[in-house]
Design a protein that fits this description.
By secondary structure, the protein is α+β, with helices and mostly antiparallel strands. The chain has nine helices and 26 strands. The chain is elongated, with a radius of gyration of 32 Å. The two termini are 38 Å apart.
């Protein structure tokens, strides 16, 4: 069985390329201000809130406005905590925030002249701005106080991405040009993998090139630890060298010569010993600093997983990118926890190529483009599962070479797990396809793992 579902990421947002089914046949929706029903292809649809005009803009209830412009219910998201609406259509992701006059179109801010609001417990959107964002023609008739929304019958979205056709202009009481199409600047990756039921999935992922190049050039956290240690060690070595030159100078100044009298020799000896003791005390301080530095470095090496690898999972900009991927996984994955977790794991196991041993880990955006080893793939999967709402940990198996996997809390799951702070983190392999949750490779079954919880 093959599922050739193309998922497109534009400006770090994964969205479906297939439009709403009924919209592909074309539709005409007519809303009347003050009337709690509208016409969809001549059929009456009842709403629970009537459209109204405020500040010269027509406001429609969220779900009915989105449906009218060709958006299915599953592509409409309301976040009550952030008071944020997300609407997905084709290659466009539009986000509104209640009370804000700024919408984001594929993460690009667009300033509106009115703000969405909540009336009688319903989210109301200015249809003019939703239509502009989704490139849908809208007509305003001031005489009949009606808004007509026409969704073209031709599907303008293909596997290669959105069509470059120009749609009819949006018309209402204030005519404006639609936002210009966003420029290219992506590294397009296409992934193929199979889920646990054997279905084949295809994903097309344009990753923002600027973001990839930026993180590719960033020093690794582990490199920074080593660099700071080396810089401080070099500073101590310079102090020792300066101290040696200092003593050489005073040795020449107080060197006892063959013709010196007893008192002259005694004075020179006492002065040199005074300088010697001063230098000795300074050398002891340098040695103490060196011992402290060695201890700090050992601690840093021990903590590098917690302060290093975990930071790659939670790094803010990468995590925002991963959250968009997780949102699609959440929509497509099975409903049970085991099925959802293994659906995301299968993507990382098979679609992300395994690259042999690297010195330092990669950020998720790098792994999406380049692939990675067990560390990189575990970081990516941990970030995805965390964004899907699961408690996760990184499992480190020490050795030469070492190994890393993901631990994930999974209600009603079975298999091998690692207990940390009362939470069962089930083992999840990332290196190759076919591994189920709780299934540990033979070579690691008798080895204990360090569990680093990702908060």
């Amino acid at each position: 069985m093959k599922r050739d579902i193309i998922l497109i990421l534009i400006l770090a947002f994964f969205v479906f390329a297939t439009p709403v089914a009924w919209a592909s046949k074309g539709s005409v929706a007519v809303f009347t201000v003050g009337k709690s029903s509208y016409l969809l292809n001549g059929r009456t649809v009842t709403m629970d809130v009537a459209p109204y005009v405020k500040e010269g803009r027509t406001f429609l209830p969220l779900r009915f406005a989105a449906n009218a412009v060709g958006v299915a219910d599953e592509n409409i998201t309301w976040n009550p905590a952030l008071r944020e609406i997300t609407i997905i259509k084709g290659d466009r992701v539009v986000q509104f925030v209640i009370g804000s006059k700024v919408l984001t179109l594929n993460r690009t801010p667009v300033t509106m002249d009115v703000a969405p609001e909540i009336v009688s417990g319903r989210v109301m959107l200015p249809i003019r701005w939703l239509a502009v964002a989704l490139d849908v023609p809208v007509e305003w008739d001031p005489a009949s106080r009606t808004v007509t929304i026409r969704v073209p019958g031709e599907n303008r979205t293909t596997e290669a991405g959105p069509s470059t056709e120009t749609s009819p202009p949006v018309t209402d009481d204030r005519q404006e040009e639609a936002p210009e199409k966003l420029a290219a600047g992506y590294i397009v990756k296409e992934y193929r993998w199979h889920d646990r039921q054997g279905a084949e999935w295809t994903w097309r992922v344009p990753v923002p090139e600027e973001m990839y190049r930026y993180y590719k050039s960033q020093p690794r956290i582990h490199e920074r630890i080593l660099k700071e240690y080396q810089e401080r060690l070099d500073a101590l070595r310079r102090q020792v060298e300066e101290l040696r030159r200092y003593m050489d100078y005073w040795y020449q100044q107080y060197r006892i010569l063959p013709g010196d009298s007893y008192y002259e020799a005694l004075w020179k000896y006492q002065m040199y010993m005074q300088k010697y003791n001063e230098a000795l005390r300074e050398l002891e301080q340098i040695l103490q600093e060196y011992q402290k530095l060695q201890w700090l470095y050992r601690e840093a090496k021990y903590q590098q997983i917690l302060d290093g690898y975990v930071s790659y999972v939670t790094e803010e900009r990468n995590y925002e990118l991963v959250k968009t991927l997780a949102r699609v996984f959440a929509q497509q994955a099975p409903r049970d926890h085991k099925g959802r977790i293994e659906f995301a794991a299968a993507f990382v196991q098979e679609a992300i190529p395994y690259i042999e041993e690297e010195e330092y880990p990669r950020y998720p955006v790098e792994t999406l483009v380049d692939g990675g080893d067990c560390e990189d793939k575990s970081i990516l999967l941990a970030a995805i599962l965390r964004a899907m709402g699961y408690r996760v940990a990184l499992l480190l198996f020490e050795g030469n070479p070492g190994h890393m996997a993901v631990g994930v809390e999974c209600p009603n799951c079975w298999g091998a797990y690692y207990l940390k702070d009362g939470v069962r983190y089930f083992y999840l392999e990332t290196t190759s396809p076919g591994w189920s949750i709780g299934e540990v490779p033979l070579e690691y079954q008798e080895i204990g793992a360090l569990v680093y919880v990702v908060h």
